[in-house]
Amino acid sequence: MFIIFRYLAKQLLTSMFAVSGILLLIFMSGRFIKYLSQAASGGISADVLFTLMGYRMPGFLELILPLGLFIGILLAYGRMYLESEMTVLFACGMSERRLVMLTMGTSLIVMFLVGAMSLIISPWGMQNVEQIFRDQSKLTEFEMLAPGRFQALKSGQRVTYTEALSDDKKELQGVFISEKTTDGKSLVLTTAETGTQYVDPNTGSRFLVLHDGKRFQGMPGELEFNVIEFESYGLKIAEPPEERRGRKDESIGTLELWDSSNPKYTALLQWRISLPMLVPIVTLLAISLSRVNPRQGRFFHLFPAMLIYITYLGLLIVARNALGKEKIPAWVGVWWVHLLFFAIAMGLLGKGAIVRRWRSRNA
Description:
single chain, 363 residues, alpha+beta, 6-stranded antiparallel sheet, 9 helices, 6 strands, elongated
């Protein structure tokens, strides 16, 4: 029996990891593009991109792994039904109950991983993401500069370029700055040989002090320009850093949610518990839905199975939102959705057992 368990586990995990890997690549690519655009516009430093993605990965996996297991069972067992491997196993004395128990062994491992991510690792990762963004919000244009590239300030009113930047990011070489005046009627162009950062000890404001340069002010296309040459010129680049606004709900620890009576936090806590509960129930559903007639083809059952999974997840989201808005009591919460689909899974398993028993009697 251990040989059969090892074979089934190998088939399931191979399919699950393949599906989960593809889904993870798709979801993380979208998030990475979003962070990349923020880095390109000067919102965050490019140095923290992969760190952010690492901290966000558990949040993706907690949603992807149940779906990956569900599709993995459909693909693996569907192939085994199609190639009559399941028929041979049942003919050798293995019952569907034993098939369910062996599959649940693998499912419990995935359930443990999803539970660890949902309850512990994902909130911890989001806390680190929030901390990185808080640190990034305190950085100025000076720290965000990349040599050899025109870069817009967060407000979009200033574009800065530097030919070279020292390793400690304290000195610029070959500086060019373009910005609009406060009234928006003229454009100011500033060039300088070097630039350094200065922090006012009294106010905390930061200035970029330019050395040996020129300042041009006027409207493009017109001949009248004001030109000023300077040895030193201070340009304010940031006000004193302010604290970032409140944290996101996803970064709140599970124990804190448990101790809270806030309906919104109760809904989030039940959602986190629901994700690992999702795993064994979709496993039961997938075992039933993986039965396929060789004449139907390997992928015939995928479409209705995915509709059931999407409905399951969609009802969980609806129940979570309703609980957060106090439209349903906490004791009802999202649990009714799990009970409904557990009943559906058991009904499908029972129906399959009755059909096979009937066929064996009339064979």
